[in-house]
Write a structure and sequence with these properties.
Elements (H helix, E strand, L loop, with lengths): L1 H10 L19 H9 L9 E8 L4 E7 L1 H20 L25 H4 L10 H16 L8 E2 L11 E2 H15 L7 H6 L4 H4 L41 E2 L4 E2 L1 H19 L3 H20 L2 H8 L27 H16 L17 H10 L6 H17 L7 H16 L1 H10 L5 H7 L15 H4 L9 H23 L7 H8 L10 H9 L2 H6 L3 H42 L6
Parallel strand pairs: 3-4
Antiparallel strand pairs: 1-2, 5-6
């Protein structure tokens, strides 16, 4: 812009006899910046060139264009296919998946998440709004997994972003996601208070709340309670919690989950049909639903009906039914594959160059998350400079380009996307969850409980959360039946029937399949039409392949993002001073 101004003003303008330009000297306004704003209106997504002027001279009369086909091709290579994949898999989450299921829109009858599982409550008389309020409690349990002792820093520890984050910071991040997911419940003052995520409401990751096997081979830190008293202590090899109960034929730690579920159901019954009561009801249902997804209950149910080729995923032990009910050990790899996606989608929204007007002073979800993360950095210059950037964006948004107002927001975001890209650095905080899990991922299948003496499979070996697992739909069917029955009991309780006992009923579902008959008809009917899936469930090789084909792309994508983010963040650190000095609003 400055160059063009100089050429027009000095080289091409008419001259006085002394050779000086007949045009006035440069004015006060910054024509370089003003010209850059015009250039930034290029429609990169839908075209490869833009005319920015019409030039007339003795040699040429026609348009002047800029050709950005190479930039367009680069953007398509780096974001096109990846963006489409993310758009088609918005619900890749943990524990039956927070949400409705990975492919629920395309396959509503065979792809389920916690929210679609709880559609069964509709048969028990719960309205759509009530089901959403109940699901809020369930959703909170999924996202409490992000507060893992490996990444939470103690309140007294110095800031160590992006290696560690405070519990308060992580809670604020989850609250932003909650506002987006449960906005329909926050339209009133009471709603905003009831559905604003607090530390007490969210809690921290505790295996008990997901029926996860608490066994830990690599205790780090040595005692999680030093970081936060709400963390459970590690269950090291030999801990009595890991033993099999002879009469119940299940792991002892499962009883802790049953007790937690009962307490939450009793709290919900006492609180009644209130926001708090429904939230506690949802927290309890999360445990009940995870039982069918995170344990080998489905496999043992099929074996009970004669499908003995199905792998039990446990060693035979000295207990009533020989093959005990067990659940999987939950590791960092499972957390990152489950929870990185929603944060990535918010920090790196796929906007497809849809222009949206920027409202001065209004922060996007991405802005809010980045500011929260940057506050955790030991060097507060980054927080300060990002705040300056937001001020710059507001300044741009206030420029009276009335005819192009809908494009100003896109311009204002461009420096972050293509120059500063602080989002990439902020994303490192989520990437830290990968941490030591790469080695864990490589050894997940080395110990096969079907041929060893182990009763401690990994979560990845057992989990039926994703619809590529052959028993996903059966686990969902069993879960929906249990949820509906417990929902009917809670309805009666809230309507004044003191004989109804949701806690007692829910507890009856968590047992060895040989000690109950309610599931037999459901399992038998499913088995009639799923011979292929049963064959897959008999092959550890097939199951390992399905697991790897599902998780490897996620982990590869995350590691790629991390490498890109590290490179761009190093660029930011090396050029921070120069970048900000060049921005005229802050000279």
């Amino acid at each position: 812009g400055h160059h063009i101004d100089n050429v027009l003003r000095t080289d091409l303008a008419d001259k006085h006899p002394d050779g000086s330009s007949t045009l006035a000297e440069d004015g006060l306004l910054d024509e370089g910046a003003r010209y850059a704003y015009r250039i930034a209106f290029f429609d990169i997504e839908n075209s490869h060139e833009t005319m920015y002027a019409h030039y007339t001279s003795a040699d040429y009369d026609g348009p002047l264009k800029v050709d950005y086909s190479e930039a367009q091709a680069a953007i398509q290579r780096s974001q096109g296919a990846d963006a489409e994949e993310q758009e088609s898999k918005l619900e890749s989450r943990e524990g039956f998946g927070a949400g409705r299921g990975e492919h629920n829109k395309e396959k509503p009858g065979s792809s389920f998440g916690h929210e679609s599982i709880e559609d069964a409550l509709g048969k028990a008389g719960f309205t759509v709004a009530e089901r959403k309020a109940i699901y809020f409690g369930n959703w909170l349990r999924d996202y409490s997994q992000l507060l893992d002792p490996k990444i939470v820093r103690a309140p007294t520890a110095p800031k160590d972003f992006p290696s560690k984050l405070s519990r308060d910071t992580l809670t604020k991040l989850v609250n932003i996601l909650a506002f987006k997911e449960f906005h329909s419940l926050q339209t009133t003052k009471d709603g905003r208070e009831d559905y604003t995520v607090t530390q007490k409401m969210l809690g921290v990751y505790r295996p008990t709340e997901h029926i996860d096997n608490p066994k830990n081979f690599k205790p780090d830190p040595a005692d999680p309670k030093i970081i936060d008293r709400e963390f459970d202590s590690w269950a090291l090899p030999g801990d009595p919690l890991l033993a099999v109960l002879p009469q119940k034929s299940m792991k002892r730690y499962i009883l802790n989950s049953v007790e937690y579920m009962q307490n939450r159901l009793n709290d919900a019954a006492a609180a009644g049909r209130s926001a708090e009561g429904m939230r506690w009801f949802g927290e309890a249902l999360h445990v009940l639903e995870d039982y069918f997804s995170h344990s080998n209950y489905v496999e043992l149910s099929l074996r009970k009906l004669g499908h003995t080729e199905v792998l039990p995923w446990t060693a035979k032990t000295d207990c009533k039914h020989g093959w005990p009910v067990v659940t999987g050990m939950f590791g960092s790899a499972d957390i990152i594959a489950s929870l990185a996606a929603p944060f990535a989608q918010m920090l790196f929204p796929v906007d497809n160059s849809d222009f949206e007007a920027t409202i001065p002073g209004k922060l996007t979800e991405s802005d809010q998350m980045i500011l929260i993360l940057l506050e955790e950095h030991s060097d507060q210059r980054y927080f300060k400079y990002y705040k300056k950037y937001l001020g710059y964006r507001d300044w741009v948004a206030g420029i009276p380009f009335k005819s192009e107002a809908d494009k100003v927001g896109w311009i204002a975001r461009a420096p972050v996307r293509f120059v500063i890209n602080i989002q990439n650095m902020a994303y490192q905080a989520v990437l830290h969850l990968v941490g030591n899990s790469v080695d864990d991922t490589q050894t997940l299948w080395e110990d096969n409980p079907n041929i060893s003496n182990s009763t401690d499979p990994s979560h990845s070996q057992l989990a039926k959360d994703h619809d590529n697992h052959p028993f996903h739909s059966l686990a969902a069917a069993l879960s929906m039946h249990a949820v509906e029955q417990v929902g009917r009991a809670m309805q009666k309780q809230w309507q004044g029937d003191s004989n109804a006992s949701p806690a007692k009923l829910a507890s009856s579902f968590i047992c060895h399949p040989n000690d109950s008959t309610w599931q037999d008809a459901i399992v038998a009917n499913w088995a009639k039409n799923h011979a292929t899936e049963i064959r897959q469930g008999a092959s550890a090789t097939d199951l390992e392949h399905l697991h790897k084909t599902h998780t490897k792309p996620t982990l590869d994508k995350i590691k790629k993002k991390g490498k890109e983010g590290e490179e761009k963040w190093n660029y930011i650190k090396n050029n921070l001073k120069d970048l900000y000095q060049e921005w005229s609003p802050f000279k």
